[in-house]
Specification:
By secondary structure, the chain is of the alpha/beta class. The protein is built from seven helices and 13 strands. The strands form four sheets. The protein has a seven-stranded mixed sheet, sandwiched between helices. A two-stranded antiparallel sheet has the order 1-2. A two-stranded antiparallel ribbon has the order 4-5. Helix 3 links the parallel strand 6 and strand 7. Helix 2 crosses helix 3 and helix 2 packs parallel to helix 7. The radius of gyration is 18 Å and the shape is globular. The relative contact order is 0.18.
Amino acid sequence: MVGWCTSQATADGVFDPSSFTLMMGTSKTTKYKKQAYDDAHKYTGSKPILVVCTDESRMPMKNEKVFSTGNHPVEMLVPMLHFRDAGFTFDIATATGGAVKLEMWAYPTKDENVKKLHEGIKSMMESPKKLSGITSLDDYAAVFIPGGHGCMINLPKSAALGNLLHIAHERGLPTVTLCHGPSALLSTCAEGTGKEFAYAGYKSMCFTDKTDAFTPKVGYLPGPMPWKCQESIEKVGVKVLNTSETGAVHQDRELITGDSPTAANNLGVFAAPILAKYAIDNSL
């Protein structure tokens, strides 16, 4: 039983979640179901959504064990399926221009919709844009930052991302994120931006520190978190609404958030028509 609840060391020295947490916390399929949009409510323009992903997959814990991470594939691909159904295409960017990293241990291997979308954007994921090479959001309809612990590694310190999020914030451009993705909002006050945190006073969903503190006990994480997502965004003025992970979503002005992988489908269903309406109303 101890082995069943212990993080699993891989050949390259990192740790995947335990067999127990993979059984309880992942699925081979998702809850995605295509939503119907009539002509008046489907985006027909050409401006894509900027999808900001992580190019980091190794997250050292406080005990120096390294967690095998990246973007959670369900948190990334299921909302993107809904955005696609609402008429959008995508550009993908990472902090360094390195390939997108996914938590492949969470990949829904029997979900044909996810697999087809993944295949269709794989070339963009392998050769994404570099955030510092994007200086304007004039060519974009929205910003989407998928979750997964990997987004906590270098995105919160990215001045390039912070500058883009300030532009989105000032314009009211829809900005969507979930789970640990809200940690990337910290980039708006990162060194090099010269600016204050953009989202003080906002209400948000977020994966809770309480759950992150519990998961090493069942082997999801191989050790305690190096820093706390919820605590860090609360310190700069975000009010985190959820106290557990139930799949909840929330909108506060341009910011649309979900609490966990369980929220991925709910977030897509909720956010996609909001993004489409914004793009249509603003003639994007």
